[in-house]
Amino acid sequence: MALRGRLAWGLDWLNRLAALACHVLLVIITTITVTQVFLRFVLNSPTSWSEEISLLGLIWFGLLAVAVGIRRHEHVAITFFRDLLPLPLARGLDYLAQLAMAAFMFTVMYYGADLIALTGVQVLPASGLAKSLLYLPAIVGGVLGMVNAFGNIVLRDVTLADLPPEVANVG
Known about the structure:
Elements: H1 3-41, H2 50-72, H3 80-84, H4 87-119, H5 136-154, H6 165-168
């Protein structure tokens, strides 16, 4: 298998793993939330930790999903002007968009590390979990997002040549 093929396989495997984690997190968040509603309104005996755990799961889900979306090209894009450009300029604009996403994910990761350092050994009051777990997904999602953006550039997945002519508006 060629190097590009191995890179694509590795990125896709990593993103399938992250997507699986997102699915599991959604199940956990939904289960905890439904259970909490039942306990609160039916049995009148709510838990003290459910909101914190659901929030933690939602933060992990969100940042992993953003990173996976970069690899899959599933983020919102306004392509009207890009589609009017000649193919080389349109490709350059697509590469610039991938670089912008990588820069954004680097910023998320950088400030996530600052927040982890700031929280130190603090714990969440209801669950007793480390407060840094709220900010760790910024690092994990940031790294995965940057890897995906640079992978898209290296693998040339963002080129209009890979799209059908009616979508790429080249002809």
